[in-house]
Design brief:
The complex is a heterodimer. Chain A is of the alpha/beta class. Chain A contains eleven helices and twelve strands. The termini of chain A are far apart. In chain B, α2 packs across α6 and α3 runs parallel beside α5.
Chain lengths: ~280, ~300
């Protein structure tokens, strides 16, 4: 029995000789933690998530998942694979990639049926999740006919029906309108209350700060350069500037022009809001 | 506003009349075709959801009986019986709340016209000797030749009609479920499911590529430039589709894919399905028997 879901020791990954995606990553993710991996585009966030899901494997170092080595060979064992897949769910950045069944209902049932659960139980899970995520009316529709926001909901629902202990989310707020973002944050809050682990990769600092209780910052050199609470990490403006997560921004208030660090993203973090004394 | 302001511009020259340098670009034509293809797929979904006769049938029964009709069509030689079968597809289309006009247009234009063009040369006296019915210069069409053409055209139109009824009155998920229930291998059903989605996703990509180009294009360019550009973009779409295929497979593995494509939907046969199946079987048997009597 372990209280740590994942332990990464000196993990590195090269896509091909000379093209590094991740380098010397030391990281442990505790049970029930909500971790946001933040970094600029190309810093290796998605690769890290794929590694945690056993889709990409380290070319250096090692990963332990729930106390056992997570390797390509281990996942070839049906018992290990079933156990691992039932514990870890991955929501891909592009919902289109994740929706491959012919109807939304089949999409939601796909994971649980693959795990060998009985039809009746799967039906109950599908109904519950569809009701909870307010997608009951979509069940009979083919995924390609849905809007972007609906696809994202269905993609998340298709993983939640597997009731994984760990939820991996790649850029979850991408392409979501403000209402859907609030909905997603509510879903993540529910997961926190249930004691499930969440690891999300994002460059949306406001969403990361709101949804996570720990931020891990990846640099453009593909290494971890900061790891702490959102308050601790977001206070390091120089570091965030260096890793290309925020930039200097100049704007005007009445007759006064001034500059400050500024992050872009679908939401606005409270730290970025500011007041001024004017003449 | 300063003199150098970008808002101080001259008025646009009036658009040239058509024929004076106008005309649709290859990019626009391609984007329009792609948009039409996507619209067709979505329109089929709408037709399949109507409360018509064929839409109410169990997908397996519908698929099997319409295949039975298509096989019957291929066995029948009588033009009159084939014409009657074409009439039955029109009646079925009407009872299934499919627009009969658009149904007939689609069947005759996509099936009938093509069959006519392909088979008409076979009616020439050089290929099919017999009494000449029509002569145009050195070309003579014979009675047996024209009868052969009529048989082929009516056969193609009838078969295309039954096939189109299946496609239009059955939702894609139901068709896949029917194939799966009829013991089609999982890998084939999964491939079909993903293929359609992949095609739609790529169609949308292609449409956006062409529209993006058109929005930045000042002149139509030469035909050669357009062909080069289309070829290069096709290569891009192929690369993108390969990458997407890898990602989709990863997504399937992530959710525990074991090679099977199970579904929660359990199909049940109702009395109406049995009645339809029995009636279809009887009609097909009667048509084949009548063909033996009537002959070509």
């Amino acid at each position: 029995m372990t209280e740590t879901d994942f332990v990464l020791t000196q993990v590195g990954h090269e896509y091909r000789a000379g093209v590094t995606a991740l380098a010397a990553i030391d990281l442990s993710i505790g049970c029930g933690q909500h971790v946001a991996v933040v970094g600029a585009n190309g810093s290796g966030k998605s690769t890290l998530l794929k590694m945690l899901d056993g889709l990409v494997f380290p070319t250096a170092g090692a990963i332990l998942a729930f106390g056992a080595p997570l390797t390509e060979e281990a996942l070839e064992d049906p018992t290990f694979r079933r156990d691992f897949r039932s514990r870890v769910g991955f929501v891909f950045q592009e919902a289109d990639v994740q929706l491959f069944c012919s109807s939304v209902e089949d999409e939601l049932a796909f994971g649980p049926l693959q795990l060998g659960l009985p039809d009746d139980e799967v039906r109950v899970r599908v109904g519950d999740v569809a009701e909870h995520l307010r997608i009951e009316k979509l069940l009979d529709r083919p995924p390609y006919s849905l809007s972007g926001g609906e696809k994202k909901r269905v993609a998340i629902a298709s993983v939640i029906t597997m009731q994984p202990h760990v939820l991996l989310l790649d850029e979850p707020t991408n392409a979501l309108d403000p209402r859907s973002q609030v909905w997603l944050l509510d879903v993540l809050e529910d997961w926190k209350l249930e004691g499930r682990t969440v690891v999300m990769a994002t460059h949306d600092l406001s969403a990361a700060a709101e949804a996570a209780d720990r931020l891990v910052v990846l640099s453009e050199d593909h290494t971890v350069v900061a790891d702490g609470t959102p308050d601790e990490v977001l206070a390091q403006h120089e570091l965030l500037l260096a890793v290309n997560l925020i930039h200097e921004h100049t704007h005007r208030h009445a007759s006064m022009a001034h500059g400050h660090a500024h992050a872009h993203g679908p939401g606005t973090h409270p730290d970025q809001a500011h007041g001024h004394e004017h003449d | 506003m300063s003199a150098s302001s970008p808002c101080r511009h001259t008025d646009l020259a009036p658009a040239a009349r058509r024929g004076g340098g106008g005309g649709r670009s290859l990019a626009r034509k391609t984007a329009d075709s792609v948009a039409r293809a996507v619209k067709d797929v979505l329109q089929n979904e709408e037709i399949a959801a109507r409360p018509g006769l064929l839409q109410r049938l169990d997908p397996r029964v519908k698929l099997l009986t319409l295949i039975l009709f298509a096989v019957t069509v291929s066995l029948v030689h009588s033009v009159w019986l084939l014409t009657a079968l074409i009439g039955s597809t029109m009646i079925l289309a009407a009872l299934s709340l499919v627009g009969v006009g658009s149904f007939a247009r689609k069947v005759w234009l996509s099936g009938g016209l093509l069959a006519l063009l392909v088979s008409l040369p076979s009616a020439l006296s050089w290929f099919t000797p017999g009494p000449v019915v029509v002569s145009i210069g050195p070309l003579s069409l014979t009675a047996p030749g024209l009868m052969g053409v009529a048989t082929l055209v009516t056969r193609v139109v009838a078969a295309a009609g039954f096939a189109l009824l299946v496609i239009w009155t059955m939702r894609w998920p139901d068709l896949l479920r029917a194939l799966s229930a009829l013991r089609m291998p999982d890998v084939v059903v999964a491939t079909l499911a993903m293929t359609q989605k992949q095609i739609l996703t790529l169609l949308r990509t292609v449409e956006q590529i062409h529209l993006a180009r058109e929005s930045r294009t000042l002149s139509l360019g030469s035909a050669r430039e357009n062909r080069d550009w289309v070829t290069e973009r096709m290569a891009f779409v192929v690369r993108k589709s390969m990458k997407t295929a890898d990602d989709v497979y990863d997504a399937m593995l992530s959710r525990g894919f074991t090679g099977a494509m199970p579904s929660l939907v359990r199909l049940h046969l109702a009395t109406g399905d049995w009645a339809w199946a029995a009636a279809s079987l009887a009609v097909c048997a009667a048509v084949i028997a009548a063909d033996r009597v009537v002959g070509p």
